[in-house]
Write a structure and sequence with these properties.
Blueprint (H helix, E strand, L loop, with lengths): L8 H13 L17 E6 L4 H12 L3 E7 L7 H5 L3 E4 L3 H13 L4 E3 L6 H12 L5 E4 L5 H13 L5 E8 L9 H16 L19 E3 L2 E7 L5 E8 L4 E8 L6 H10 L5 E4 L2 H4 L2
Parallel strand pairs: 1-2, 1-3, 3-4, 4-5, 5-11, 6-8
Antiparallel strand pairs: 6-9, 7-8, 9-10
Helix pairs in contact: 2-8, 4-5, 6-7
């Protein structure tokens, strides 16, 4: 279908009130007993690289119906007329928090693939969700099945090696560094090391005036490369005195993320509240 055209906010709100007065279903998930049909999906950020691919994947997926494509200039109130069961939010870090807040406040479950969700932002979202019964939100640092599994493998390996570092490589159009996936990976490694009673990773560096050792996330060094010809790669490196282990995942195109997005949309109804990480949906 074509992109949902922007309409005046007042007109959208009036239309939504009129639909509710006539007994039409409001925005948000279907109620118990309502006829089960395709899951109605809206894509926010549909003009972007990820969003445009997601819209196409949703249109092609069995059991899903694309009801709205919103670009950066379209008001979110347009979703009230489109009545999606799930909104997929693929925008930019500076916009994502306000977008998700709107979705939660209007009873629209959300699958969020935008990075920039700091611990503080996540805590704020948890508090908001607690005020809205039935709210469902997934924040996924990565929708690539390979990347999700790599993070799980890294968490499993972390207690057995003294050294651990993360190197992520992306195309130079990426707006944030390090990537949300790299941050999540480092956090999981650090958590697994702490639970195993390991101390700090060995590093005798005393001088690093130019930041050559990269960012430090919970004690784990993370390095970001931005390079033409690349899409998305993460290499997780472990080492001990007599052996080394590397876990690498390559997402060769944006298409690599589409099966994960479709999976998330289909399984979101099974996960109330806030979920962080697609891995929680893999064995649902």
């Amino acid at each position: 279908m074509g992109r949902l055209l922007a309409t005046p906010v007042g007109a959208v709100a009036a239309e939504a009130r009129q639909r509710r007065s006539k007994g039409a279903r409001p925005a948000g998930p279907r109620t118990e007993g309502e006829h089960v049909a395709d899951i109605r999906v809206a894509v926010i950020g549909a003009q972007g690289r990820m969003g445009s691919h997601a819209a196409a994947a949703i249109e092609a997926a069995e059991g899903l119906e694309l009801t709205a494509r919103l670009g950066s200039g379209d008001p979110l109130e347009g979703l009230l007329a489109a009545r999606p069961d799930v909104a997929v939010e693929l925008t930019v870090p500076k916009a994502t928090e306000d977008n998700v807040r709107f979705l939660v406040e209007h009873g629209i479950p959300a699958v969020v693939g935008t990075t920039g969700w700091s611990a503080e932002r996540v805590r704020s979202l948890e508090a908001l969700i607690a005020e809205h019964e039935g709210a469902r939100v997934l924040i996924a640092p990565n929708f690539s099945i390979g990347a999700v599994l790599a993070m799980q493998f890294a968490q499993l390996a972390a207690p057995y090696f003294e050294s651990a570092e993360v190197v992520e490589t992306h195309h130079p159009r990426k707006l944030d560094a390090p990537s949300g996936t790299a941050v999540a990976t480092a956090e999981r490694i650090a958590r697994a090391r702490a639970e195993a009673g390991l101390g700090a990773v060995p590093d005798a560096t005393e001088s690093d005036p130019d930041g050559a050792r990269g960012a430090v996330i919970d004690g784990i060094h993370v390095h970001a490369v931005r390079q033409l010809g690349m899409n998305a790669t993460e290499e997780i490196r472990f080492g001990s005195a007599h052996e080394a282990l590397s876990i690498r995942t390559d997402s060769l195109s944006t298409e690599a993320f589409m099966p994960g997005i479709v999976l998330a949309v289909k399984r979101l109804s099974e996960h109330p509240g806030l979920t962080v990480g697609l891995e929680h949906f893999l064995d649902a």
